[in-house]
Amino acid sequence: MYTLRSTPNPTCGAVQPWPSPRKPRPPQGDHQPMSMLPFPPQHRGQTWASWTLIALVTVALLTLGLTPAANAAGPLSWSAPELVDHQAHTAQGGISCPSTSLCVAVDEAGNILTSTDPAGGASTWSAPVSVDPGHALSQVSCPTAGLCVAVDNAGNVVTSTSPTGGVAAWSVAHIATDVSGTLGVTCVSASLCMVVGVDGLIYSANPAGGAGTWTTTGVPPVRWTRRTTDP
Questions:
Q1: What is the pLDDT of residues 66-114, one digit of tens each?
Q2: Number of domains in the chain
């Protein structure tokens, strides 16, 4: 049995009289009665709207679990490295996981590897599938399980709407006029992907629709330069 102990408080248990409400003073002369609300009458609607908006946002954050207390979790636990690409002298180029049940990786030999149980060990990964022979795939982005977009070092995008469907499910489209290649890709959704090319930014609202659905913005990518200054 557990007991609770509390420090005595002289006011505990005593019934305190509820203060009687103040009566508004009658108007005197040219003075108008003061509003009992803490904000002027002309701003009451705006103030109530602001508090209503704050309440709705708070409820939304609590519902989605975006508050710090709801997001508090223990430290991540990492496994030892697993060899999933058994080709000699082949490095992984990138990986994207749109869900806990799908991860797609690319390598510098033009292969893709997929797993529907990424945390299940090396045996849960597919054998390398050659989708872009002769080119090095550097990045891949999968906004959903129904779309993956990869880029290579020859100015191509390699796309699939069924990433685990084998080589026939992937197609290659040349989108960069500079054959030096593409540097990176990101897809915020299935209807918007951005590719960083050597000759500028390239975007598409239909990434799996072929080369004709990609548009070059003409905006060159950011180039970083190193400068030395006197101490």
A1: 445 445 567 878 888 888 887 765 677 899 999 999 999 999 999 999 9
A2: 1
Asked if the structure places residue 128 within a domain, the reply is yes
Containing structural domain, residue 206? 92-216
User: Which residues touch 63 (CB under 8 Å, ≥6 apart)?
Assistant: none
d(CA 32, CA 28): 8
The larger pLDDT score, comparing residue 18 to residue 134, is at 134
Is residue 10 a part of any domain in this protein? no
State residue 202 phi and psi, 5-degree precision.
Answer: -125, 135
Q: Using one digit for the tens of pLDDT, what is the confidence trace for 126-184?
A: 999 999 999 999 999 999 999 999 999 889 999 999 999 999 999 999 998 765 567 88
Largest CA distance in the chain: 97
Beta sheet of 137-144, edge-to-edge order: 137-144, 147-152, 156-160, 170-174
In a domain, 195, yes or no: yes
* CATH number assigned to the domain comprising residue 138: 2.120.10.30
Question: In this predicted model, what pLDDT tens digit does every residue of 37-73 receive, in sequence order?
Answer: 444 545 444 454 455 445 555 545 554 554 454 455 6
Q: Where are the beta strands (DSSP E) in the chain?
A: 92-99, 102-107, 111-115, 129-130, 137-144, 147-152, 156-160, 170-174, 182-189, 192-197, 200-204, 214-216
